[in-house]
C-alpha cells in the first residue's frame, strides 16, 4: 500500500513520515549509547593518538558525531522514500497539466517504471538503514585486543 501515492492525510506510506524515521533513528541512538563500553567512551572523550592540545577541539566534534549519525539515517530514509512519491505524483499530474488523453499512456508507463524503481529503492533503503544501525551499534562495543 505504501507504493500507491495517496495525498498526505490518506497515504499508507510509513517511512515517508518523518516521525517514524525519527523514532527508528532514536532507537538506534539509544541502543548505541547504552551498549557502549568503556573503550567506546574513552575514544569519545580521550581519543587515542590525538595530541593533548587537540582534545578540546576533538571532544565537541566527537559529540556532534554521536548525534549526526542517527540524524543522517533519519533523513536518508525519509528523503529517499518521499522523493519517489513526489516523482510519481508529478508524472500523474502531467496528464492534468497537458489536459490531453494522449499524454496518459506515456505518463502511465513512466509511473509504472518509477513504481518498480521505488520498490527497489525501498528495499535498498531498508537494507542500508539496518546495516548502518548494526554497524553503529557494533562500533560501540569494540573487543579488546589480546
Can you describe this structure?
- With 146 residues, this protein is mostly helical.
- It has helices at residues 18-35, 38-45, 55-98, 104-139.
- It has one domain.
- The protein is built from 4 helices and no strands.
- The protein is elongated, with a radius of gyration of 22 Å.
Question: Tags for this entry?
Answer:
146 residues; mainly alpha; 4 helices
Distance between the termini: 51 Å
Whole-number mean pLDDT: 86
Query: Main sheet, how many strands, which sense, barrel?
Result: none
Q: Return the string of H and E elements.
A: HHHH
Briefly summarize what is shown.
The protein has 146 residues and is mainly alpha-helical. The chain has helices at 18-35, 38-45, 55-98, 104-139.
Topology:
Blueprint: H1 18-35, H2 38-45, H3 55-98, H4 104-139
Helix pairs in contact: 1-3, 1-4, 3-4
